[in-house]
Amino acid sequence: MEPESAVTTCYRHPKVESYVRCTRCERFICPDCMREAAVGHQCPACVREGARSIRRPRTVVGGRVSTVPVVTYVLIALNVLAYLGELIRPALVDRFQMLGAALTGPDGGLYVWDAAHPDGYHPTGVADGEWYRLLTGAFLHLPATEGTFGILHIVMNMVSLWNLGRLVEYRLGRVRYLALYLLSALGGSVLVLLIAPTAATVGASGAIFGVGAAYYVLARRLGDDMNTVNRFMAGLVLWLVISAAFTSWQGHLGGLLTGGAISLAYAYAPRGPRQALIQTAACASMLVLLAAVAFAKVSELTGGGVTQ
């Protein structure tokens, strides 16, 4: 009778001899399958299983901790790309800027809104069903040689987003931060629609004011040194007042209020299994509120004939 073969093979590669066992499942593994562990080696399947069982760190508001501010980078890139698009095709500004209600004349120019407009004049803006303007305007900026600031408009906004966004994204997590940014941008546009529907506006300032409000709320929630934070907020409010003379203060204020409300819901939702549900409900409620206000204003402007 021949002795039993002592050759053992890798369980993932049966043709490869192996004499090393996975320290977790104790199956034989070849050098290609070995993954270094705290003690010995593990097979790829056990490494994946172990990674799933590790509890990932969470921020104080329940978001996943991320050391790389990917969302902030993407938002800055989108704003810069949109600005380059404006330089190549200036008509993009007229097409996508925030505009509540205006008339396009026979010559193609914009005229003051009048619900009872004469023949040859056509409605344009959110009142004509261009709802996308409520968000797209937040990714556009003043052309390089126009307005009070020109190219400084996008430069100042992107520097502010770079400085504030990275910190707030780290404390909120990517998903919550993105929701805050977009809702703040929307909140700024809705307040412009509500108070100054005939004004054409562009800029990420509303969203950035919302991020600034979140920075303040989170600092208080985490017990940061409030001296620096209070000085920052005082400067932000001062800028809101001063800029009212030459920028859309409605957009700034709308973003600030929306961002403040959302960040309060983020920061003070009770921790536990229902935390994310409460925060999601707060964001959804804000979205419904903003949509209802915008719908009501457009209905008022058009005499009840809301364009879908």
UniProtKB/TrEMBL annotation:
Keywords: Hydrolase, Membrane, Transmembrane, Transmembrane helix. It is found in: Membrane. It is a multi-pass membrane protein. It comes from the Bacteria. The chain crosses the membrane at residues 61-84, 147-165, 177-196, 202-219, 228-246, 276-296. Residues 129-266 form the Peptidase S54 rhomboid domain. SUPFAM superfamilies: Rhomboid-like. It holds the Pfam family Rhomboid. Belongs to the peptidase S54 family. This is Rhomboid family protein. It comes from Streptomyces antibioticus.
